[in-house]
Amino acid sequence: xxxxxxxxxxxxxxxxxxxxxxxxxxxxxxxxxxxxxxxxxxxxxxxxxxxxxxxxxxxxxxxxxxxxxxxxxxxxxxxxxxxxxxxxxxxxxxxxxxxxxxxxxxxxxxxxxxxxxxxxxxxxxxxxxxxxxxxxxxxxxxxxxxxxxxxxxxxxxxxxxxxxxxxxxxxxxxxxxxxxxxxxxxxxxxxxxxxxxxxxxxxxxxxxxxxxxxxxxxxxxxx
Length: 223
Prior knowledge:
Blueprint: H1 2-8, H2 11-49, H3 55-70, H4 73-83, H5 93-118, H6 122-130, H7 135-150, H8 152-164, H9 177-188, H10 192-222
């Protein structure tokens, strides 16, 4: 038991590497703070644009969503960071990670918001237009708020998943939480930093997981 604790829960090791882990945590939160709003904004825009009368626009948007959902975000990140330079496009680690997360995340948010918008009765749109609101105003003030409420559990769940995916940034040596834990483990030859990183992830996400469960249970009760 003592050997197990010394190996996986070494307090001395944790105290020594904690500044490095904290630095990685701030990078993870920074990635999330940029990628999540961009993904949501792009997802809303795509969902609203899918209401377009143009068949070509709808086909292009569906192709984008299907493609981004089919490609693993890690593969997308590696292509952006290591592939685009051959085309003369050089992005830093942070920008490449944000772009990969945004492209992938927006495709899922687009589908969630699309389902939310479709759940709003057409009568609501017609009523909004009859008051003098144009299409953009009726979507912004009437349809999108109602649709968002209808799919709120899915939005929260997808946001949590997107934040967890920030760990893929370690593939391009961006020093987020997982990368910091890997570096610390390599320096001290002890897995305690990896265990600590896992615990930090759990502490961050468990409340949101419970929140999603409550919201889903409440939705089932009211349905």
